[in-house]
Amino acid sequence: MEKIRNFSIIAHIDHGKSTLADRMLQLTRTVDERDYQDQMLDDMDLERERGITIKSHAIQMRYEKDGVDYKLNLIDTPGHVDFSYEVSRSIAACEGALLIVDATQGIQAQTISNLYMAIEHDLEIIPVVNKIDLPNAMIDEVKDQIVDMVGCERDDIIEASGKTGQNIELILEAIIDKVPHPVGDEKAPLQCLIFDSVFNSYRGIIAYFKIVNGTLHKGDKVKFVNTGHEYNADEIGILGMGMKPTKELSAGDVGYIISGIKTSKEVKVGDTITHVENPCDKAISGFEDVKPMVFAGIYPVDADDYEDLRASIEKLQLNDASLTFEPESSAALGFGFRCGFLGLLHMEIIQERLDREFDMDVITTVPNVSYNVYTKDQEVFEVHNPSGLPEATAIDYIEEPFITAQIITHADYIGPIMSLCIDKRGELKNQIFLTGNRVEITFQMPLAEIVFDFYDKLKSASRGYASFDYHTSGYRQAKLVKLDILLNSESVDALSTLIHADNAYDLGRKMCIKLKELIPRQQFDVAIQAAIGAKIIARETVKAVRKDVTAKCYGGDITRKRKLLEKQKKGKKRMRQVGNVEVPQKAFLAVLKLD
Ligand code: GTP
C-alpha cells in the first residue's frame, strides 16, 4: 500500500487536464508511442471532438523514484457541472489531487468548486500553473491567486506546460512525495467504493472501484450494498491502457470488476461492494441516487421510427444510468419519450449521440425542470412536463428547484451580471473580491432560469470573462403558470411551458414573435397566439403565400419538376404537421432562442 498513490486532476474546462494527463502517460510509458493519440483518456468520439471529458475513467501508471517502483492511479474526473456527483465520487476515491490552473486564465468557477470538494475530502492538493509556454501567461498573478485559495507556499506551485512537456517529472515526483498512500485494512471485511462504470457490448457493465478495506479475489461472491444485488466476481483487474486481469486486489488498489451485470441501472456510482459472506458493517458514506434535473420530450421525426427510437434510447441508457425515459404522447408530435437529464449539456450530448451513433432523426421539445405539485387534496407529485400539471383549481401550490450559483468574473462586469441574475429571479448571497480585480459572486436562483438561456446571456454580459458553476439547493414555492401556444386556434402541447407568473406576458409575446420568424409562410394565414388558461395574451400572424414551387419550370421539363419536388420533400423532413400548419423542428425550441 505504501507504493500506491491515488490522485485525480481538478481543473476548469480547457485548462489543460487531458493534455497534461497525456504527457504523464507518455512519460511513464503507459502508452506505447505507436498507439499514441492526443487525449488518450477521452475515448468517446464525441468527447474528443468537443474537447470535453464526459465520463470519468481511471488508469494506472508505473513510475520509479529512488529505485522504488510506484503505482500511480490517475482517476480522471469530468469537468462539467452536470456531472458534479461523478466528480465527487472520483475525488472520494483519491488521497491527492493535482490542481491545474491555466496561466492565462487564472482560477475559474469550476476550479473553486472542485477544489472545495477536494478539501472537504481531505485530499493533498498539488497546485500546478499550466500553459506557461504561452506568451500571455500571467504566472505570478496566477500563483498569487493559488496561494490565496489553497493556502499553500508559493514554492510549492509547479510551473508546467502540458504542451511542451516541461516539468511533468516534477509533477510525478510531487505526487509520490506529497500525496499520502492509501490507508486501509487488507484483512478487514471488504469495502469497495464504485466511482464509475462503463458499458462494453461484449462484456456487459464494467464497474470501476477503489478498495477501501479488505481483499477481493477473482471468483468471490459479492454484493452491491445500496442496490442489494449479488454477483460473482467473474473477472477483476487493474486498468492500464486496457484492462489487465488479476487474481487479487486489496485495500488501496483501484481496479475493475466484471460480473455479468447487464444494465447500468444495477451499478450506481457511489455504491459499496462487499462480500456476501462476512460483509462490511456499513456502506461507504456519501452515496446519492442521482436524480435527473432537466426533462424534455424526444420524438421521432418520422412516426414509423418510434420503436427504433425506443431501442436506441434503451441502448444509450445501458451505459448512462443518469438518463431516464418514459413513453409520452403529444397531440402535436405523436408518440415519443419524456427523457430526464442531469443538465443541459447532458441533454445535448444525448441528442447528438442519438443522431450520430443511432442515426435517429429526432425532435426535442423545450426542456423544463421537475416541479413538486401540492394539490388541495393534500397530494404531492412530481411533474416533469407542463401537460402533466393538474387543473389550476386543484393546485394548492407548486415548488421549483433552486440552485446556488457561483460566478467568477472581472470587477468590470459585476453590474451587467448582477442585472442578469436579478432578471432571472436570482438573490444575491455573497460577493467576495479575490486577488486582483476578480470577484466571486454567489446567487440563489431557480434552476428553471438556467435551463433557458442563462449561459449565453452570461457570456455576453461578461464578454466571455465569467465562469459559472452551480449546485442544487432544495425546492422553493413559486408562482408558476402554464403558458400555451396556439396555432390557428389549436393548442400545441409541445410548445407549452411552465413559467413564473411575472414573466409570462413577456415570454408569451416573445414566443409569438419568434415563432412568426420560424414558421414558414403557408397557403393560408397562420395565427400564432399565446394564452394562459383561456386568456389570450399575445398574437402574431404569418401571412399566406401562394407559391407553387414547380411554377417556374414552365411546365416543360418533367424530370426537373420531379427533382424539385423531391428536394422539397427532403426539406420537409424536419417539419411537423400540427393541425393544418407545418412547423419546423427549430420552432419547438424557439423558447431557448429568445432575445
Ligand atoms: P476538459 O476535458 O474539457 O476539462 O478540458 P481539459 O482541461 O482536459 O483541456 P485540454 O487538455 O483539452 O486542453 C484545452 C486546450 O488547451 C487544448 O487546445 C490544448 O491543446 C491546450 N493546451 C493544454 N495544455 C497546454 C499548454 O501547456 N500550453 C498550451 N499552449 N496549450 C495547452
TrEMBL record:
Lineage: superkingdom: Bacteria
Record keyword Protein biosynthesis present: yes
List of residues binding GTP: D14, H15, G16, K17, S18, T19, N130, K131, I132, D133
Keyword Nucleotide-binding assigned: yes
Location of the Tr-type G domain: 2-183
GO molecular function list: GTP binding; GTPase activity; ribosome binding; translation elongation factor activity
Predominant localisation class: membrane
Compartments it resides in: Cell membrane
Biological processes annotated in GO: positive regulation of translation
Family from the record: Belongs to the TRAFAC class translation factor GTPase superfamily. Classic translation factor GTPase family. LepA subfamily.
Alphabetical list of HAMAP family matching this protein: LepA
PANTHER family: TRANSLATION FACTOR GUF1 HOMOLOG, CHLOROPLASTIC (PTHR43512:SF4), TRANSLATION FACTOR GUF1-RELATED (PTHR43512)
Protein name: Elongation factor 4
Lineage: Bacteria, Pseudomonadati, Bacteroidota, Bacteroidia, Bacteroidales
